[in-house]
Amino acid sequence: MAGIYIHIPFCKHKCNYCNFYSVASLKYRDVFINALLREIENRKSYLENEKVNTIYFGGGTPSLLKTGEINTIVKKLEDSFNLITNPEITLEANPDDVSEEKLTALKNNTPVNRFSLGVQSFFDDDLKYLDRIHSGDEARKAVETILNAGFNNVTIDLIYGIPGLSIEKWNKNLDIFFSYNIPHLSSYSLTVEPNTALQIQIKRNKRAEVDEELSIKHFEILLKRTSEKGFINYEISNFAKEGFYSKHNSIYWLGDHYIGLGPSAHSFNGFSRQWNVASVKKYIESVTIDKIIEEKEILTKEQRFNEYIMTSLRTSWGCDTEHIENVFGKDFKKHFLKNITPYIHKNLVLRENNKFILTKQGKLFADGIAADIFID
Ligand code: SF4
Q1: Distance from the alpha carbon of residue 297 to the mean position of ligand 1, in angstroms
Q2: Quick check: is 287 in a domain?
Q3: Could you say which of 253, 287, 311 is where a domain stops?
């Protein structure tokens, strides 16, 4: 499996908690599309000999793209990469960008077949805390519009741990989600990233601090209620009905290869990771003279092992000692077994033959357990 990620770096407004690269201006929008097409042309050999199964339009705000632009980009990708027939094509959207007219055009005139809607909460006060520009009503309307347009492979994002999000309100958010029969949910705990507006607002007492304990309670409710409704928690923050796992994100979690196109986008070919410059202006300037500004890191065996532990431990497939031995060797397997065993005794990790999977309780400590297994 291999995938293509396209980063559309424009937003109408910058949300306070966001640390993705994007600019709140559409100044470079048109030239950007041309630069992107040129980058695709220049990097078409990156996934040579690999079948490409997924295309993911992320951002920023890909729903700002017109249907014609989406088709031009997809056509260029088809001409440049070895795409399978009917790849999974996901488009991220913000509720304030969703209209009946746009969705009908997307459904009828583009190959987009999966929608990811950034709802975050169905309540206005949470959305205000996050500086989002849509309302709870708009979020509901957007979900309904997407479903009415005939998209059935839909996911929404919900954030928990927001100060003021009571247990009752969190349950209500989940009730609303379940009421739509959407087959996929991505749900994250609010984290205050360094150098974000939210961090400054909290420092200046303009926003309440995030309550870790409340966040844990929300996560426990999330696990319980999604499981009761038949969702599989196939990655710590992702829940899907059978057959609706995100194929694209699974590529990241399974250590498969992907190319990232657009400013700040990351690529991985199994041995090195590289990322484009996080500036639309510099990106356009450099691509225009066929010189992409990027940074590259050749991963050591230890770094690749650590990445494998970090991503696979968070999934329902778990860490596999057969894979560790085959890819990294016997010593790495020995190291892994020595360091994971105490967590089995504490009931935080479950062993199923050669697979090691986090228990419900273990999911609360995923990062700490992974860090304990890392090799420096
Ligand atoms: S819309 Fe999404 S990408 Fe843009 S600033 Fe808000 S959270 Fe970040």
Answers
A1: 27
A2: no
A3: 253
pLDDT tens-digit readout, 113-150: 999 999 999 999 999 999 999 999 999 999 999 999 99
Ligand 1 contact via 334 beta carbon (within 6 Å): no
270 domain-assigned:
no
Domain boundary among 190, 219, 253: 253
The conformational region for residue 36 under phi > 0 = left, psi -120 to 50 = alpha, else beta, is alpha
Residue whose token pair is 């937003």: 11
CB atoms within 10 A of CB 259: 25
**Number of other residues whose CB lies within 10 A of the CB of residue 22:** 22
* Domain span holding position 362: 301-373
Q: Do 50 and 186 belong to one domain?
A: yes
Number of domains in the chain: 2
* Residue 59 belongs to some domain of the structure: yes
Place of tokens 């975050």: 120
Peptide bond connecting 260 to the previous residue in cis, omega within 30 degrees of 0: no
pLDDT in tens, 251-284: 999 999 999 999 999 999 988 999 999 999 999 9
| Residue 92 Cα to ligand 1 middle (Å) | 11
Read off the pLDDT band of 81 (50, 70, 90).
very high
Q: Is the CB of 59 under 6 A from ligand 1?
A: yes
Question: Residue 200 falls within a domain, yes or no?
Answer: yes
Question: Residue 238's beta-bridge partner residues?
Answer: 186, 235
Query: Cα–Cα distance between 210 and 191 in angstroms, integer?
Result: 8
Split at pLDDT 50, 70, 90, the class of 353 is very high
Query: What is the H or E stretch that residue 345 is in?
Result: helix 330-345
User: How much is the pTM?
Assistant: 0.96
Q: Give the CATH number of the domain where residue 312 resides.
A: 1.10.10.920
Are residues 305 and 240 located together in one domain of the fold?
no
